[in-house]
Amino acid sequence: METYLAVARHGSIRRAAAQLHITEAAASAAVAHIEKQLGAKLIAKSGRGIVLTDAGRVYAEYCRSILGLMREAQAAVRRADTGRLRIGVVATAGEYVLLRPLAAFRDRYPDIEVGLSIHPRDMLFLELQHHESDLVIAGRPPREAGLVVRARRPSCLVVVGSPGRCPDPLRATWLLRGHGSGTRATTLALLDRLQIRPPTLTLGTHGAVLAAAREGLGVTLIHGDAVESHLAAGHLEILPVEGTPLDRPWYAVTTPTPTPPARLFIDHLLHHAAPGDRAFEAVPAP
Questions:
Q1: Residue 42 sits in which domain range?
Q2: Is the pLDDT of residue 74 over 80?
Q3: Residues 13-26: tens digit of each pLDDT
Q4: Whether this model's pTM surpasses 0.85
Q5: Which of 30, 45, 69 is the last residue of a domain?
Q6: CATH of residue 85
Q7: Exposed/middle/buried for 77, CB within 10 Å: 0-12, 13-18, 19+?
Q8: Are 128 and 88 a contacting pair, CB within 8 Å?
Q9: b/e per residue 91-115 (b: at least 16 CB within 10 A)
Q10: What's the DSSP call for residue 219?
Q11: Which of the 8 DSSP states describes residue 249?
Q12: What is the β-pairing status of strands 174-177 and 200-204?
C-alpha cells in the first residue's frame, strides 16, 4: 500500500521507486500484485507517466486511511506519556496560539515524540480523516467530516490595513490567503455579503499577507491574535467594515477515537494553560 500510494502521489513508477529506495521493477511488481488481488486496474499510462483510474483513486483513499489507522493503532497500545503526537495546525494558529502550550506540554511530557505539520485547513482535516495526524487546531471542521471538536478558544477576525493608507476599505485591494484557507473562504463570503467586487491580490501565506498589509498594498481579514503586537506598535489599524469583527474561534479537533497522547494534549489545553494565556474551553460531546 505504501508503494502504491507513492506511485499515486508521484504519477510515476520511477519517481516512487527513487523515493522508497527500491528498484522500479519492485515498485511495478507491487502495484501489479495489488491489481491482481483486487481484480481491478488501478493505473493507466499517460504520456511518459501514469494516471490513476477511477478504481485507483478510490483505492488510494482507502490506503491512506488504512495505513493511518495502522500507525494510530501502534500509538494506541503504547503508554500515553511515551507515545507519538502528530499535530496539524493552520499557519496563524501555529504561530500565535499553539507554540506556548506546546512548549509547556513538552516540558511536562518529554518522552512524547511530537510532530507538527502546517497546512491550509482543508488539507489538515483531510489528513485527520485519514488518520495521518492525531489532532488539528484550526477553524471549525466540515460537518460531514465525521470529526469531533474537543475544545475551543475564543478569537475574532478583523479587517486591518496600514494606518491612514486605506480610508475606504470597501474600495481597497483585498489581500487573500491561498486556496484551501478558511480565512480566504470567509473573506470571499464577506465580500459577497457586502455586495462588493473590489480588486484582490492572492499572496498565499499568512506572513506575506500580513507584510503586504503593513506596507499599504491593501486590507485583509485576519485573526486578531495575529495582529495584537502590530496594532500596539501602530503598524496596522483595525478598519470599520460592516459585519466585522467576525466571531471565529479556534478549535482542537480529533477523530472519534483519539490516541492517548492526543487525549493528554487536550487535557493540557483545558487545564494547564500558562498564566495570561486565553484558555481553551471544553466542548460537550455531540
A1: 2-69
A2: no
A3: 888 889 888 888 98
A4: no
A5: 69
A6: 3.40.190.10
A7: exposed
A8: yes
A9: bbbbebbbeebbebbeeebeebeee
A10: B
A11: -
A12: parallel
